[in-house]
Automatic annotation (TrEMBL):
Residues 1-23 form the signal peptide. Keywords: Signal. It comes from the Eukaryota. The keyword Signal applies. This is Type I phosphodiesterase. Gene3D superfamilies: Alkaline Phosphatase, subunit A (3.40.720.10). InterPro entries: Alkaline_phosphatase_core_sf, Phosphodiest/P_Trfase. The lineage of its organism: Eukaryota, Fungi, Dikarya, Ascomycota, Pezizomycotina. Coiled coil: none annotated.
Length: 487
């Protein structure tokens, strides 16, 4: 009798403990995450000393800074955002670049093998909005511009989200609360994940409708994203939002990007040798800092700042930081140097080559070896090394390039005279990105060790009390994809 009573009491205590642990798991009610596209890890301390009373400095006072954060390789915006929202690297996600490649079905009317998901998917990319149905999910993409694939004997239009092979944090969070995201093109439909259902609301004004070399115009463009953040915190949506279901309050998970820093880096960059910020870059940083300040103030005004984890981690950096290293090499020289039929070359501060016939690999590599000086090649990655480095196997997966060319630091394969820097490559300048998290309850900490921006996805789920194992990347990764240190 006595024993029984005791065990009753014990189980009551245990149950209470479990209930408490459950509530504790959901440490935050909301996560707001932002990519300051282009911002390097090295820019963070520089900016904080330039603007010690700014919003970023203030966020870091109660936040964790990850000084050794690396984005995906390659570091194009598309694999960069996939890293953040799914935790998957290109070999797993199938997303290598906005300008990728795949073997689509040749029986379909639109079967081109380049799988391009950028502004060319719009109805008219000279306009911010050009769709007859801008508020429909995916409605800002013109189906006539989409590649097609054969699914169960039928040619279907392949929307960007259908190209992604893994689920996203938006899909995991959506059954538990509302989700919102904004980025550069309607093609960021991709973040919805393979189900197409991850976002309650998506806001995708077309960035190419403004001059993407002009900092003033890009700040104007980014201001649309900032207004969207402020509207969401108000439980509202801006006009032309793609709506799956109307917001009923502040989304559980929301985020988006800033482009101003990236544009200022590409057009003006850093001062030679000293790598101090140029005035234009300072203008862009000031705008982003002020904008983050507005988001924090809005969260505070709604009394949800303590319940919100703010994450600022970049999709990519920019190469080179020191403009004296910049060198332009014509991307059109690459395929002829390979000396075989190349189906596709995707080039920035890296070049990805997909060969028409994979039996030509040795010949192509020999041709590129001979052109090392002309093409300023530092490294040619192919074959076993490509697989060993975790890039996947082009023999088994048509999305994987046959050859990755890594040029010397500072080389950009381009004929454009409008830019002095680019990203997409494997260098530290393109991959070492700004990454920090903040909440008023956190103690200021700095983590110096290497972390991956892929860790952001499981961290967001854990912060919201959800199971990181619901991510395909965590379940099937075999890569020990863990939450960020401190969580
Ligand atoms: C880039 O990040 C890696 C991994 O954290 C680190 O080892 C390396 O020193 C960093 N390089 C630069 C130039 O910051
Ligand atoms: C950038 O755009 C603004 C607004 O359209 C214009 O006034 C300015 O002259 C442009 N700047 C450059 C450098 O082209």
């Amino acid at each position: 009798m006595h024993l029984k009573l005791q065990s009753c009491a014990v189980s009551w205590v245990l149950l209470a403990g479990l209930a408490r642990a459950d509530a504790d798991d959901a440490k935050y009610k909301h996560v707001a995450f932002f990519s300051i596209d282009g911002l390097h890890a090295s820019d963070v301390p520089k900016w904080v000393s330039a603007e010690p009373h700014g919003a970023i400095a203030s966020l870091l006072k109660t936040g964790y800074w990850y000084a050794g954060a690396l984005t995906s390789a390659p570091s194009d915006s598309f694999p960069g955002i996939v890293n953040l929202v799914s935790g998957a690297k290109p070999a797993q996600s199938g997303i290598w670049y906005d300008d990728g490649y795949g073997k689509l079905h040749f029986a379909c009317p639109w079967h081109q093998r380049a799988v391009v998901y950028d502004e060319t998917k719009d109805y008219d990319n000279t306009k911010l909005w050009s769709s007859p149905n801008p508020t429909v999910v995916g409605g800002n993409i013109d189906p006539a511009n989409l590649p097609q694939a054969m699914v169960r004997g039928e040619c279907i239009n392949l929307y960007p989200h259908q190209r992604l092979r893994v689920n996203t944090i938006f899909e995991v969070v959506h059954p538990h609360g509302q989700t919102a995201y904004t980025d550069k093109h309607p093609a960021y439909d991709m973040v919805r994940g393979p189900s197409g259902k991850g976002l309650s609301v998506g806001y995708f004004p077309e960035i190419q409708s403004v001059d993407t070399t002009n900092v003033t115009q890009i700040i104007g463009y980014d201001t649309l994203h900032v207004q969207a953040f402020l509207d969401w915190i108000d439980g509202k949506t801006p006009a032309n939002t793609e709506v799956q279901e109307a917001l009923t309050g502040i989304p559980k998970l929301f985020g988006g990007n800033f482009q101003a820093v990236s544009v200022a880096q590409k057009s003006y960059g850093y001062e030679p040798h000293t790598v101090a910020f140029t005035p234009q870059l300072t203008t862009a940083l000031t705008f982003v800092d002020d904008s983050l300040g507005k988001v924090v103030a809005a969260l505070q005004a709604k009394s949800v700042l303590h319940d919100t984890l703010i994450i600022v981690c970049g999709k990519h950096g920019q190469t080179p930081v020191d403009p004296t290293l910049f060198r332009r090499v014509d991307q059109h020289l690459i395929a002829p140097a390979a000396g075989v039929t190349v189906s596709q070359v995707t080039a920035d501060d890296v070049a990805l080559l997909w060969l028409a016939d994979q039996r030509d690999l040795a010949k192509a590599v020999a041709g590129l070896e001979k052109a090392r000086a002309t093409l300023a090649i530092q490294d040619i990655i192919y074959g076993d090394r490509l697989r060993d480095l975790g890039f996947g196997d082009p023999a088994k997966d048509p999305a994987v390039p046959d050859i990755i060319i890594v040029p010397d630091l500072g080389v950009v394969y381009t004929t454009s005279h409008a830019k002095i820097a680019e990203h997409g490559g494997l260098s530290a300048d393109s991959r070492n990105v700004s990454c920090f998290v903040s909440n008023p309850s956190l103690q200021k900490r700095e983590f110096d060790g290497p972390v991956s921006t892929a860790q952001v996805a499981p961290t967001i789920l854990k912060a919201l009390g959800l199971d990181p194992n619901e991510l395909d990347s965590v379940k099937h990764g075999g890569d020990d994809l863990d939450v960020l240190p401190g969580f």
